[in-house]
Amino acid sequence: MLALIKVIAMGIVQGLSEFLPISSSAHLVFTSHILQIISGNPIPDESSYDIVLSMMLHIGTLIAVFIFFWKEVAEIWNALINGIKTKDYTDYNAKLGLYIIFGTLVTIIVALFIDDTAETLMTRPAVVGFLLIITGFFLFGAEKYSDTVKEKENKISLKTALIMAAAQGLAALPGFSRSGWTIASGLFSKADRMAAARYSFLLSIPIILGASIVYPLKEVKFAELATYNWTYITIGTIVSAIVGYICIKYFLQFLSKFSLRVFAYYCMAVGLITTLFFTFW
Length: 281
Prior knowledge:
Blueprint: H1 2-17, H2 24-39, H3 48-68, H4 70-86, H5 92-121, H6 125-146, H7 158-170, H8 178-188, H9 193-219, H10 230-255, H11 261-280
Helix pairs in contact: 1-2, 1-3, 1-10, 2-6, 3-9, 3-10, 4-5, 5-7, 5-9, 6-8, 6-11, 7-8, 7-9, 8-9
C-alpha cells in the first residue's frame, strides 16, 4: 500500500511541479526522501526502479504538453516542413520550429557539462533545497526587471530562445526549476510573460522525450524490468499526465493576470525549510 501511495504522491508532485516554476526534480527528491523517512527505512542511493519511475512520470507530463498544445505543435511542425521545402522561414511558426531545434542542442550541451553534478545532487536534498532558494531569488529578480521594461516582445526572438535554452540546460540541476529558469530568462530578455511561458512549454517537449529515452539506456538495469510493478508505474504516469494537463491550463490563466512572485516566495520558503530539515535530520 505504501508503494501505491508513493507513486500516486509522486505523480501528483510531478504533474504540479513540472510546469509550475518550483522545480519538479527538487520536489521528487524531497517527496522520495520524506516517504523513506516515514517508512523508517534508510535512504538508499537512487535505484534502477526509481529511475524508471521518474522517467515514466516525466513521460506523463510530456503527454500533458502534447494534448494541451497539440494544435500549436502541429502548426509549428507543418510550417517547419514547409520552410524546409521552400527555404522560406518568414512564417513565425517555422522560426519557432528552428528555435526549438537550436535550443534543444544548446540545452543538451549545457546539461552535459553538469550531468554528473546533477546525478549526485539527487541524493543530497539539503543542497537541492539551497538551489531552490536560488531559484526563488532568480524568479523575483526577473519579475522586478520585467516591471521596468516598457515594450515587451510578444514573439520570441532567436536571442531570447537561445538564452532560455541555456537556462533549461542549467535546470538539469535539481532545485533549478526548468519552467522557472526558462520563463525568468525570457523575462530578463524582455519577452512578454505569456510568450515566454508558451515557448518554455514547447521547448520542454524534445528534452523530456529525449531524457525519457536516453537516460534510462544509460542507468537502468534492463534485466530487472520484468520485476517492477508496472501497474503502479502506470498509475503514477496517468496521475502525472492528468495533473500536468490541469496545471498547464490554470497556470497559463494565472500568468495572464499575475506575476511569478508568489512562486518566488514559495521556492525561498520551501528551500529554506528543506535545507534546514535535511541538514540536521
